[in-house]
Amino acid sequence: MDVIIYHNPDCGISRNTLEMIRNAGIEPTVLEYLRPRQAGSSWSA
Questions:
Q1: Residues tagged active-site
Q2: Tens digit of pLDDT for each residue in 23-33?
Q3: What is the pTM of this model?
Q4: For residue 13, what are the CA distances in angstroms to 9, 24, 26, 33, 42?
């Protein structure tokens, strides 16, 4: 199963959620949705 997290590194809940996912042995695809995206990039993982 692929796991994707829309992550805000300034948010404690988001950081804790990412840590819990990683502690479960899963390396998710992390999309920092508040960062500006480069031209031509998309949200698709």
A1: 11
A2: 999 999 999 98
A3: 0.74
A4: 9, 17, 18, 15, 25
